[in-house]
Amino acid sequence: MGSRIAIHEYVHIYQNANKVDENDFGLPLWLEEGSAEFLALYLGQEEGWADFRMGMTEALMSANDLKQRYPDIGIQDIETSESRDALQSTCDCTGTLQFETGQWAMAWLVNRMSLDIFYKSYIPDIVELGGHESFERHFGLTIQDFYGEFDEFMSSAFEEQLAILPTN
């Protein structure tokens, strides 16, 4: 567990090394935490420290449970720390949205493109292009279009959701 946490925190160091303007969209909170959790599980599996599929399955169950309890709330509601703080008065769901649902948003993006594009192109290009433009350039859709497509994906069957996971 300690090694997985270390990977997660090192991902944040990498993310923050590619952040210039505090006022820019950069990485939304759900993607900041979700990508760190995703990569910690993914690399942890390679080293024998984690079971990627099991960790992702548990995260999916939590994300789906949250979606059933609060169908009108989604990751778009926690793009920023301000929107996250505002949401906390509505539900105790921000952790699940940031981490578990964020992991699945990351899985969806990796399935659409690749892990390399995410870490080696999208994140570094945030510095030059800004968060929104880098997202659109590397994933081929606006963040708003992503929210719609990801919401549809999260409404699909559990087995279909699991089928997008990369295999190590």
Tell me what you see in this structure.
This protein is mainly alpha-helical. The chain contains nine helices and no strands. The protein has helices at residues 2-17, 29-47, 52-69, 81-87, 94-112, 115-129, 131-139, 143-154, 158-162.
Q: Quick one: overall form?
A: globular
The amount of beta strand, in percent, is: under 5%
Rg over C-alpha atoms, rounded to the nearest angstrom: 15 Å
Give the biggest sheet: none
Arithmetic mean of pLDDT = 90
Q: Helix/strand/pairing class, anyone? A: mainly alpha
Number of strands: 0
The helix-strand sequence is HHHHHHHHH
Put simply, the count of helices is 9
Approximate helicity band? over 70%
Distance between the termini: 19 Å
How is the topology of this model organized?
Blueprint: H1 2-17, H2 29-47, H3 52-69, H4 81-87, H5 94-112, H6 115-129, H7 131-139, H8 143-154, H9 158-162
Key words describing this protein structure:
9 helices; 168 residues; globular; mainly alpha; 0% strand
Short description:
With 168 residues, the chain is mainly alpha-helical. Helices cover 71% and strands 0% of the residues.
